[in-house]
Amino acid sequence: MMELQELKSFVEQHDNFEIRVISHAGNRFYQVELEDVEGQRSVIGRRGKPVLFRSLDDVYLELKRADIHRAYLVHHVANDEVVGREAHYHQPLASRTPLVF
């Protein structure tokens, strides 16, 4: 887990990473995840707990504070496997929606 205050520092020191805004079907909250160049993923948190955002606007504001202006929206649907869709959301790029703010 990466604390929100660590995110800005990470962004200042690195330029090859990906931010994902994760949403789950049936849930109206968003979670933010960072993946670095080595493939290490970290959920963004506060005081040791994952941060859940109530809207994309809240996500945008927090990411802008960290000087991040691009991310991918990844929407997990619980029944993907049931309808014959592979349940991997990191590949290919078509399974994610680019966000620019």
Largest sheet: number of strands, sense, barrel closure = 7 strands, mixed
Rg calc: 14 Å
For the record, give the distance between the C-alpha atoms at the N and C termini, rounded to a whole number. 24 Å
Number of domains: 1
Number of strands: 7
Q: How many helices in DSSP terms?
A: 2
Q: How would you classify the helix and strand content by structural class? A: alpha/beta
Low-confidence stretches: none
Question: Which range best describes the helical content: under 10%, 10-25%, 25-40%, 40-55%, 55-70% or over 70%?
Answer: 10-25%
**Average pLDDT, all residues:** 85
Secondary-structure element string: EHEEEEHEE
What coarse outline follows from CA principal-axis ratios?
globular
Strand content: 35-45%
InterPro entries: DUF6482
